[in-house]
Structures are given as C-alpha cells and as structure tokens.
C-alpha cells in the first residue's frame, strides 16, 4: 500500500544580511506534544487539492494580521523542496520559501501579535542551537543552512 505524501509550505523570514530569522515557537498546548515549545518556520500543511502558494497564503493569514501576511508573501520566493521520512515513518515534502525583509519591516513584524504560539527573532549563530521541530531540523533547516553558507561564499 502506497503511503500518502504529507506536504507543507513554510517560509523563512529573514533580513537582507540573513543574520536574523523570525521563527514561530509553538506553545505548551500545541496539538503535537513532541513539538510543544519548539521552533519552526511559519507556514503549514497543504490541503488536498490546494495549490502551494494558496496554502502558504492561507497559513500566513492564520498566523499574522492581513498586512504582515501580505508583506511576508510579497517578499517570498521559493528556494527548494525537501523530501524526507519523519520520525513516525511518514513521507513528507516541505516546500521552503524565503521572505527577505528590510530591517524596518522585520522590526515591525517582531512587535506584532502572532496568532498561534509566539514569534521569536533568532540570530544565525543560534539557529542550529535552538530546539527546532525534530522532524525538520536535519532535512529542512540543515539544507537551508547549506544554502545560506553557499550565499556567503
């Protein structure tokens, strides 16, 4: 029997120097216990029949007010897809976008209310040290760090 591919679209929100990253920290009531209080990129699952960008737009509107969701989306570009099997042996595809914001826009974003969990600004030096979603740390965050290192070379 073929396993259904789980698919999510997420966005890394960063400054032009790519030294600061605005991440979502799930709260203690998050529905997946092993991900409570862990960090992740904003975004989420793509529903059956939904287009990738439509899903990202929907997810951002669920997490931010309309103005900030639009700012993030307008400054987003797709970087790559990552395929992996999570800790529950479920196949996943994560479509990673990056939203590069001006310092003023990023600063404004950090001072607004996030609708789910909380938003936290993390420096590049701490990105691999924080408790990131277990399933995503190596395949998604790891590949993103390689991308950042490539840009820096």
Textual characterization of the structure:
- There is one protein chain.
- With 153 residues, this protein is of the alpha+beta class.
- The protein has a single domain, classed as Alpha-Beta Complex (Nucleoside Triphosphate Pyrophosphohydrolase).
- It is built from four helices and seven strands; from the N terminus they run E-E-E-E-H-H-E-E-H-E-H.
- It has helices at 52-63, 66-74, 103-110, 134-152, and strands spanning 6-15, 20-25, 39-40, 42-45, 76-85, 91-101, 118-123.
- Strands 1, 2, 3, 4, 5, 6 and 7 form a seven-stranded mixed sheet that branches.
- The radius of gyration is 15 Å and the shape is globular.
- It starts with 5 loop residues before the first strand and ends with a helix.
- The model has no long low-confidence stretch (mean pLDDT 92).
How are the SSEs ordered, and which strands pair?
Elements: E1 6-15, E2 20-25, E3 39-40, E4 42-45, H1 52-63, H2 66-74, E5 76-85, E6 91-101, H3 103-110, E7 118-123, H4 134-152
Parallel strand pairs: 1-6
Antiparallel strand pairs: 1-2, 1-4, 2-3, 2-7, 5-6
Helix pairs in contact: 1-2
Fill in the keyword field for this structure:
single chain; about 150 residues; alpha+beta; Nucleoside Triphosphate Pyrophosphohydrolase; seven-stranded mixed beta sheet; 4 helices; 7 strands; about 30% helix; globular
For the secondary structure, the number of strands is 7
Shape: globular
Which stretches are low in confidence, meaning pLDDT under 50 for 5 or more residues running?
none
- Spatial extent as radius of gyration: 15 Å
Give the integer mean of the pLDDT values. 92
The termini sit apart by: 44 Å
Query: What level of helicity do the residues show?
Result: 25-40%
Task: Write down the domain tally.
Answer: 1
